[in-house]
Write a structure and sequence with these properties.
The protein has 144 residues and is mainly beta. It has a domain at 2-49 and 66-76 and 110-142. Helices cover 8% and strands 54% of the residues. It contains two helices and ten strands; from the N terminus they run H-E-E-E-E-H-E-E-E-E-E-E. Strand 5 and strand 6 form a beta hairpin.
Length: 144
Amino acid sequence: MKDQFIGRWKLLSCVAQSGDEKAEPIGANPFGMLFYMPDYMSVFLAKSQRTNFSVMDMHNVPADEIVSNFPDFEAYCGTYNIDEETKIVAHNIECAKVPNWIGMDFRRYYQFHDNRLTLTTVDDLSLDNKDWSFVLEWEKVESL
């Protein structure tokens, strides 16, 4: 099963749902890459249109610019485990944009179809004081 995961995946869509409400939290045309190696994974997601900072010196970016850009980019990496019986892949977070995530497991239901991988959150994520489930559609662009 692990062989199906290994490779570089390009994000096609990210849709969130909370009750009857649906949203595209990183926009209609998000950018993202997901890498599965034999024992490690990494992922980053971003809105395709992001606002540039007013300065190039990362230690002197105005705080309001950092705050406004923070939700537009996500990244984490770590090991992963696959449970073929439940069809769940667990990403064991070792490093992340959000420090609170380190040490957590992000569990995703997985489904392969053709050259695509659908990952659906097992556990809801909280955004704007609501619980959301997420469905991310990926397309394999390179086998490793």
